Amino acid sequence: MDQRPPAGCDICVVGAGIVGLATARELQRRHPGASIVVLEGAERIASHQSGHSSGVIHAGIYYAPGSLKASLCVEGAARLYDYCAERGIDARRDGKVIVATREDELPRLDELERRGRANGVPGLERIDLERLREIEPHAGGIAALHSPNTGVVDFPTVAASLASELRSGGGKVVTGCAVNDLRSGGGRIAIEHPGGSLDAGRAVLCAGPWADRLAVLAGADPDPRIVPFRGAYLRLRPGREDLVRANIYPVPDPDLPFLGMHLTRTPQDEVLLGPTALFVGARDAYRLRRVVPRDLAQSLAWPGTPRMMRRFWRTGLTEMRHAISMRSFVAECRRYVPDLQLGDVERSVHSGVRAQAIARDGSLVDDFVVSETERAVHVRNAPSPAATSSLALAEVIADRVDALG
Ligand SMILES: Cc1cc2nc3c(=O)[nH]c(=O)nc-3n(C[C@H](O)[C@H](O)[C@H](O)COP(=O)(O)OP(=O)(O)OC[C@H]3O[C@@H](n4cnc5c(N)ncnc54)[C@H](O)[C@@H]3O)c2cc1C
Fold it and tell me: Half-sphere exposure (CA, 13 Å, Cβ side) for 372?
């Protein structure tokens, strides 16, 4: 990686997660002569959400037809498979099943099927229990969907490949350089960092968990605010991984943007169970007890947080139970993998923190959100499936950057 940021460039991207890197690459493809610099606060690229995900290439089933998530996930997955094939990155199209286990989940499974078809998800089909058992011998339920186009990939490897392409094209990626202020004027934007200031023609802020802070520094509305939700995982013990061939998902709660605790065979052939979704006190709470006073204070002071908590207190209690009790975590997963026993799992070191935007009215912002301030484009909400969608989302962001003039 490059050691020092230059004094100026045409376009500066802040954040070397998968969205920032895909955007920088897209802008370089469109403007081959432009100088493009990515500034990353952490010492490594993909240190936050992009390096802490489930690694699933989503097919595009869940998202409201017409939303950015729906179109960009379907298109992004197709682009990602092509990109991985071109660059020699292992992306395994293993497929997944979504299993309904209770009568009240059947209308929701119907709705997922309808959405998947409306979104153009390739190969999606309703399957009977015999077929479910052929695909996943240890899964059980009363109805299921099969999505053969779902897969897994190591997103940090994809991010590293994007960064390497960018640098081969003359772009720079500077790590260990946290942006602390933004000032625009005279058709330029000054990006302040501990080593000085970078003068850019345009800026793109892809700061994931810290996106709202940079947007506010640039003069944007504080609504929506990022509130962190930690995802913890268990893993199947060595010797018990045969309980899951690929991906087994439950029918999710339609009021939440989270997909429920699933069982996923990673590209490294480890089987993860999770993630949970627990409100936490730090935007980088990879350990459960980590609290950053400023993060916690900002979450609690946001008017949307108590509104969200009043609405979802029952879900919050369930998530707390899953976070502290492996028994409760396993009992939830046993609904769709009945053979699963407490002795089959152990805690995984893998965890992630979702940067979920919460609106002032307490709603969890569902779709991707991209907005502008003077000379800057901000990605204000890019939760799952933004890693899957990154190559397609990058085009939408680059269009907005080009529209700045
Ligand atoms: C538990 C979990 C499971 C997930 N599973 C999936 C999945 O299976 N499939 C899927 O498609 N998606 C999944 N996601 C979502 C996916 O990981 C994210 O949508 C995606 O990684 C977002 O990428 P990003 O580049 O926007 O954010 P990030 O990867 O968080 O990157 C933002 C970057 O900005 C940097 N930054 C922030 N502030 C500054 C600053 N001031 N100066 C410089 N740099 C700064 C950060 O250090 C960070 O590197 C999951 C997420 C989580 C948390």
Answer: 13
